[in-house]
Structure formats: structure tokens, C-alpha cells
Recover the amino acids of this structure.
């Protein structure tokens, strides 16, 4: 049985379809004091697959409740699928006194899970924080699907070195093209500086790929440079289209016409589903 968090309902339905498994009749309520209550209805699942992205603290609480409700309903096995794992970027105590938030979240989620899958975590090492260790699911190849068939001399570019593997996966799935990356320096949560590489982009179609677009700062900087250097068409892709705060405006001001993301987060930009990739792991 597939059990959907409120943040992942379309993806959970697509996964239920892929696996030909029923969807639990979940309900989400909030008490007058602000506490949440996520419930799964009168079901008796043998295996419960909880599908819940955690972009907010509320979504984290909801996930823990759904795991517990599944166990309470007698599930023999609880599998947790985290399409987008929030707090994953705080995977170290970067300054004295800070928590390793990803580890704290992983420990809490592990307590209710027999097996956990995380789609494109910020770093695969985040999976080591889970007990048992989580499996990283790479859905980046899906991002090649919405691209036009005949790109001109395509360059698959990541805005920082860390995302080069994702850009390479998209290139491989597309079938042809070069890869490269920009160097990035982050000055604050929403201020980044991107230094171009030597790659020639004049007249070429460029596919910029990242694991996540959060504030849109990284991507708008990268797109601005590509425009200045005469790229033909620029396609913006990411696995997790978080698009927080004023990201859509920032991207539009940089000249981005469309973002192609996946349904790990349910946004207007969720052009492709990761359901087939997750189904393959289940
Ligand atoms: C950073 O390492 C990530 O790969 C993304 O580049 C980053 O998180 C994007 O954030 P923003 O959209 O806020 O620049």
C-alpha cells in the first residue's frame, strides 16, 4: 500500500499506478493549538510505502506520524521514500554550536522505517546518517525527457562542480553533448558568485542542470553569464524545483523561460515524474 504525505500526493498516485498497489485514504488535520494529525484510514497494509517529501518542518512531523500510523495498522514492513529531503544541506556543523541537521532528521526518520530511499540527496553521504543506511535513488536521467530532440552542439553544464555528476547523467540520458561546470562561491543564503569556465558557448544550446533550485540565485547567475557569452538556447533543469521565496521572479528576470524539474516537489515546473525510478527500487 502506498501512503502519501501531503507534499507528495501526485507522485504517490503515480507510484501506486506504476506498482499497481492501492493508495491509502490519508487525511491531514490540524488541532486548534497548531499540532498536526496525519492519519491513514482503516487499512491493514502488509507493506506500507510512505512517500513524503520534507521541504518543511511540518512535513517532517507528518512523515513521522504516517510511519507510526502504518505500524499501528499492523504493517509488517514500513518503507520510507523521501523524494526531497529537507535539511539535507546542513550535513555538517559548519560553525561552532551548529547541529548536523541532516543527521538529526535521519535519526528520527530511521526510528520508524525498515528501509529508506532518498531521491538525489544533496550528498549521497547523507544516507549514512540513516540506520539502516538509506539508499540514494538517482532520478537525474529523467531530466533528459523534456528536452527537444535536436539540440545544437549541446553543452550540459552544472553551476558548480558538485552537480557535475548530475549534468553528466542528463547528458548520458540525452545521448550526445559535452559537459562542463562553473565555479561557485556562496556569500550568503541568497547571494552567490559564479565564475565561468573556458567552455565556448557561443551559438550552442546549453542545458544547465543542478540538484536543486532553492532561492534561484545560483541558476540566475549562471544563466546571466551564458546569455552574455552568446549561448543560443538555455534550458534550465533540476531534480528538486524547490523555488523558494522570490526564486520564480529572480529566474524570470534573468531571462529563464521555463524550468524543467521533477515531481519530488509538486510545482508548476514538475515536468517529469520520478515514479518509474522509485518503482524500480521497490
Ligand atoms: C548547492 O550546492 C546546490 O547544488 C545548489 O546549487 C544550491 O543549493 C542552489 O541554491 P540556490 O537556488 O539558493 O542558489
Amino acid at each position: 500500500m502506498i501512503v502519501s504525505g501531503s507534499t507528495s500526493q501526485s507522485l504517490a498516485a503515480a507510484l501506486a499506478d506504476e506498482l499497481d498497489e492501492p493508495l491509502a485514504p490519508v487525511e491531514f488535520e490540524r488541532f486548534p493549538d497548531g499540532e498536526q494529525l496525519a492519519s491513514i484510514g482503516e487499512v491493514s497494509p502488509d507493506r506500507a510505502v510512505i512517500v513524503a517529501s520534507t521541504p518543511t518542518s511540518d512535513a517532517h512531523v507528518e512523515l513521522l506520524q504516517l510511519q507510526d500510523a502504518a505500524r499501528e495498522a499492523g504493517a509488517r514492513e514500513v518503507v520510507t521514500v523521501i523524494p526531497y529531503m529537507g535539511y539535507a544541506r546542513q550535513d555538517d556543523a559548519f560553525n561552532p554550536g551548529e547541529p548536523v541537521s541532516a543527521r538529526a532528521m535521519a535519526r528520527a526518520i530511521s526510528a520508524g522505517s525498515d528501509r529508506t530511499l532518498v531521491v538525489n540527496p544533496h550528498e549521497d553521504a547523507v544516507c549514512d546518517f540513516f540506520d539502516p543506511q538509506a539508499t540514494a535513488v538517482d532520478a537525474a536521467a529523467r531530466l533528459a525527457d523534456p528536452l527537444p530532440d535536436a539540440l545544437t552542439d549541446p553543452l550540459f553544464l552544472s553551476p558548480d562542480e558538485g552537480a557535475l555528476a548530475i549534468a553528466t547523467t542528463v547528458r548520458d540520458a540525452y545521448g550526445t553533448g559535452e559537459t562542463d561546470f562553473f565555479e561557485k562561491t556562496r556569500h550568503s543564503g541568497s547571494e552567490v558568485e559564479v565564475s565561468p569556465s573556458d567552455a565556448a558557448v557561443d551559438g550552442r544550446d546549453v542545458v544547465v542542470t543542478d540538484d536543486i533550485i532553492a532561492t534561484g540565485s545560483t541558476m540566475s547567475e549562471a544563466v546571466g553569464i551564458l546569455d552574455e557569452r552568446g549561448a543560443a538556447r538555455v534550458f534550465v533543469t533540476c531534480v528538486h524545483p524547490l523555488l523558494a521565496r522570490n526564486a520564480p521572479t529572480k529566474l524570470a528576470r534573468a531571462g529563464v523561460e521555463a524550468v524543467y524539474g521533477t515531481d519530488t516537489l509538486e510545482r508548476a515546473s514538475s515536468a517529469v515524474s520520478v515514479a518509474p525510478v522509485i518503482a524500480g527500487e521497490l
In short: Residues 2-138 form a domain with the Rossmann fold fold (CATH 3.40.50.2020). The mean pLDDT is 95. The two ends are 12 Å apart (CA to CA).
